[in-house]
Amino acid sequence: MRNWLLPEYIEDVLPRDAYRIEKIRRLIMDMLFAHGYQFVMPPLLEYVESLLAGSGSGMNLRMFKVVDQLSGRMMGLRADMTPQAARIDAHLLNTSGVTRLCYASSVVHTVPDEITRTREPFQVGAELYGHSGIESDLEIQCLLLECLSVSGIHSIHLDLGHIRVFRSLIRDSGIKPEFEMELYAALWAKDINSLKELVRTGLNKRLTRSVQNALLLLPELYGDGTVLLSARQHLPDFPEIGEALDQLEHVARILQPYVDRITFDLADLRGYHYHTGMVFAVYTPGCPAPIALGGRYDEIGKSFGRARPATGFSLDLKQLSQLTDMNGYPSGILAPWKPEDEKLTAMVRQLRAEGYIVVTELPGEENQEVTGCDRKLVFRNGNWEIDPVTG
Fold first, then answer.
1. Cα 125 to chain centroid, rounded
2. Engineering a disulfide at 122: which of 54, 305, 317, 367 sits with its beta carbon 3.0 to 4.6 angstroms away?
3. DSSP H or E run through 33
4. Pairing of strands 358-360, 278-284
């Protein structure tokens, strides 16, 4: 057995990639901190019931599970940090006003989201609790765009959807939950043939003709701003649908100057099990999958006994780092081993305080190549100076 081999889709992050990831993490976390988002560090392990709160059965399949040797209860390795942030807001902070939280750490998945993705994403996210208006949705979306900008992502395609369009169509139909999930799956996959068959049989499942036509239309309501116009013309005149379309139009008008392209997808039911309002995905050239996801999820706190309006976003820092132009690893300065030399010690401390990498050459390393150093400290005319390393 090759003991050094890792499981599939689990990998070490080597210095250059780790440096790039950490640099972007610091930029993003500084940005979140400057906007008043407080950093939290939830545990990697929790009881399964807490980690699954409000997230639906899909998360259950993505989660590694172990038996707690102390209590005998089933524990899970978190696959998403959003439920943990909601638990912290509900039970540990327990404030009545707006709470802003952020996090940055690894999560673990049983299988990768896509064939080229890792099973150990590094999830960075921000969550806003306690405000139900469109203003908090906009704050989260603008914050995400700023975080992507400081990360080196400058070409952005924003895709907007709204869960309440679909939910309002079926809310009063009296259909069974199983049939609702079949409709959701067909819409999410944009499986037109399956959707037509489901809608056809919906005659016996209390779907009105107008709702049937609307459901068949949803997969076609994808594209630019004309989508909203078509939706207003052809979807039922339900107040909730009108409000959802108004919100999408309002957000698009405000965010248009800051992105390259905005599209709408009224059949985007990503996160349907817990999202309750506007949802969004961000794309950039060079990556077919979204680089960030988010939306409103007002009901997730109900599982913790304290329902609070909530909206947020998350992204995988490992994926993001592969798309930026922050390449390379900074070179260092080589200093000789002279702990008794006060001038040298003071200069090394000053250089490090200014952000330079200074590597001390240990005894026995002389005349050997030291990884990552392209300069060295030399003593000349009574002072230590920096010279380039010559081959």
1. 5
2. 317
3. helix 15-34
4. unpaired
Output the six-digit token pair for 51.
Answer: 């980690």
Sheet of 332-335: strands edge to edge? 358-360, 332-335, 373-380, 383-388
Q: Which helix or strand (DSSP H or E) is residue 145 part of?
A: helix 134-150
Q: pLDDT digits over 75-89, tens only? A: 999 999 998 999 999
> E strands within the chain?
38-39, 45-47, 64-67, 74-77, 99-106, 122-129, 157-162, 222-223, 261-265, 278-284, 287-296, 310-316, 332-335, 358-360, 373-380, 383-388
For residue range 89-107, list pLDDT tens digits in order. Answer: 988 887 889 999 999 999 9
Sign of CA dihedral 224, 226, 232, 233: negative
- 209, containing H or E segment: helix 209-217
Contact 82, 315 (CB under 8 A): no
Q: Output the six-digit token pair for 374.
A: 């392209």
Global pTM reads 0.90
Domains annotated on the chain, with CATH = 15-321 (3.30.930.10), 332-388 (no CATH)
Residue pointed to by tokens 């010559």: 390
